Task: structure prediction
Amino acid sequence: MARPLTERTANAARLDAALPDEIVAALQRLIDTRNSEQRNQGGARVYARDIHEEAVREMLARVEAGQRIRFLAPTFGRGPRRTFWIDASLKTAIDQLAESAQVTRTAVILTALHDFLEARKLLNAA
Result:
């Protein structure tokens, strides 16, 4: 059965980026942990999109606060490209940041996810 179309779904924009397996694995661990916590509290399920959007929003808030961001170099040609669905307004913000910082959209996404996971000490955690 297909999920019903919601405003959130209708406002989704597609992004593609190559991500190292380490980041993909850490994201999955975080999603699994949050879903376990949500089940115990009777809350709503957490999706990858929720985490992606949270990471991007955190980065945009840091930029807005004047914090300097050191962007990571994308891993072009190494590893599979992943498809992301995020809010269309966040995609626009990512594009604007990439243009103003003179980096690729992939660099923005990679850095946002990396910094988000690193701040939570989830990288290199087995």
Summary: The chain has one domain: 12-119. The longest strand covers residues 12-18. The chain has a mean pLDDT of 90. Strands lie at 12-18, 81-87.
